[in-house]
Amino acid sequence: MKILVINCGSSSLKFQLINMENESVICKGTIERIGLEIKGGEKNIIYKANGKELIFDKENKTHTDAFNTVMELMTQSELKVLDSFDEIDAVGHRVVHGGEKYTKSVLIDKTVEHDIGEFKSLAPLHNPANLQGYEACLNVLGPKVPQVAVFDTAFHSTMPPMAYMYALPYEYYENFGIRRYGFHGTSHKYISQRCADVMGEKIDRLKIITCHLGNGSSIAAVKFGKVFDTSMGFTPLDGFMMGTRSGGIDPSVVTFLMQKLSLTPNEVEEILNKQSGVSAISGGYSDDRDVVAKQNEGDERAILAHEMQAYQIAKYIGSYVAAMNGVDAIVFTGGIGENGFWLRAKVCSYLGYLGVNINQSINQKTVKGAEAELTLPSDKVRVFILATNEELMIARDTKNIVENLK
C-alpha cells in the first residue's frame, strides 16, 4: 500500500509518499510560497527521491496548483517514482484542530469536511489550509481515493477536566469551547510509543515526558500511554517561550499593552505570536543555530534567551513529574530537541533531584535523526534523544482506517 501524506500550511505544502509494506519513504518534498510572489533567485520547491534531489522555483497560485506540481514531480520528473496516479492507495492529512468532537483519526466525508471548516475559529492559520489540501487532492485524485484526517489535538483528548479546564466562567467553555486542547499530538504519540519500544517496556506501564522542541515547542505528560497534561493550550501560543511566541504570560499584560499602546486584538496577537519569544530576548534571532552562534560569541541577550528557555522547560518537566507522581523517561525531539545539545544539557542540569546525570560526551556527539540514550538503562529516570516522525504516524493511522473499509 502506497500512502501519500500531506501537511498543508497557509502558504506551504509538505508531502511524503510512503510504502507501507516496509514503511520506507519513496519520495518527499516541500513547496513554499503558495499564492505568493516568487522573489528573484528564490527556490521554493525541494523534492527528494532515489537518493537525489531537485531544488527549483515555480509559482503555484493555489494549493491545487501545488498538488498538481507534486503529482508532476512524482510521475513525470527525472526523479519520477510513479507511473500513474492510480498507484496512490490513500492520502493522510495533518489537520491541526479537531475540537472535542474528533478524538481519533477519521475518514474524511462531507460531515468531517464541514467540521474542519467550522473549527477554523480555533485554528485560523491552520485549519483552512488543511482543508485546502484535502480539496486539492479531491480535485486531482477524485473521490475514489480515500482520504483520512489525522488531528493534532486528538492524542491530547485523554486529558482529565482538571488539566484541560480554565478557571473562567463555565459558559465560555460550553458556548465557545474555551479549554486546553494541546498540539503536536501526532509527534507526542509517535515519540512516547517509540520511547517505550526502545526501553523494551509496554507503554501502559510507563510515565513519559515528551519534549517536542522546535520553532514551535510543547511538552506532554504521557501517563500509561495517555496524555495527562500538555503545555500548549487553547492555541499553540501557550506554554513556554518559543522561537517567536511568548508562551504563557500574565493575561493582564495583554490588556495593559492594548491600553498603553492603543493596540487592537490583532496587533497584540501579532506581537505575541511573531515578535516575542527567543527572538525578542536575543535581539531578533529565532533560529536556534543563530542563537547558539551569538551565545558562543558571549552575547548577553542570546545567553539570557537560552537560559530563560531552559529554565521554563525544566519547570514544565518538574510540574509534570509532580502531576504524574513520578516519571520513568524524558525524551527530547524536534529540530532543537535533536540538535540542541547545550539546551538539553542545561535542562537536565535542573533535574538532579530526579537522579538525572547525563553523559555529556554522548549528548554533544548526537546528530539530528540519530537516537541516543543520555543516561544508563539502570538509572531510575532515563533520558533519550529520539527523532520524531509525524508523517509515518499519519500514514499508519491512514493505513489502519483504509484497511478497515474493506
Brief synopsis:
The chain contains 15 helices and 14 strands. The chain is an alpha/beta fold and 406 residues long.
Strand order of the largest sheet: 5-4-3-2-1-6-8-7
For the sheet with most strands, the description reads:
8 strands, mixed
Helix percentage range: 25-40%
The mean pLDDT is: 94
Q: What is the CA–CA distance across the termini?
A: 13 Å
- The DSSP helix count reads 15
Beta content comes to: 15-25%
Give the SSE order as H and E letters: EEEEEHEEHHEHHHEEEHHHHHEHHHEEH
- Gyration radius over CA: 21 Å
Strands, count: 14
Poorly predicted runs of 5 or more residues: none
**Class derived from helix and strand content:** alpha/beta
Query: What overall geometry do the principal axes of the alpha carbons give?
Result: globular
Description:
The protein is of the alpha/beta class. It has 15 helices and 14 strands. Helix 10 crosses helix 11 (300-324) and helix 11 (300-324) packs across helix 13. The radius of gyration is 21 Å and the shape is globular. The model has no long low-confidence stretch (mean pLDDT 94).
Secondary structure layout:
Blueprint: E1 2-8, E2 13-19, E3 24-31, E4 45-49, E5 52-56, H1 63-76, E6 90-95, E7 106-107, H2 110-118, H3 127-141, E8 147-151, H4 161-164, H5 170-176, H6 185-199, E9 207-212, E10 218-223, E11 226-230, H7 252-261, H8 265-274, H9 277-282, H10 288-296, H11 300-324, E12 329-333, H12 334-339, H13 341-349, H14 360-365, E13 372-373, E14 382-385, H15 390-403
Parallel strand pairs: 1-6, 6-8, 9-12, 12-14
Antiparallel strand pairs: 1-2, 2-3, 3-4, 4-5, 7-8, 9-10, 10-11, 13-14
Helix pairs in contact: 1-3, 10-11, 11-13
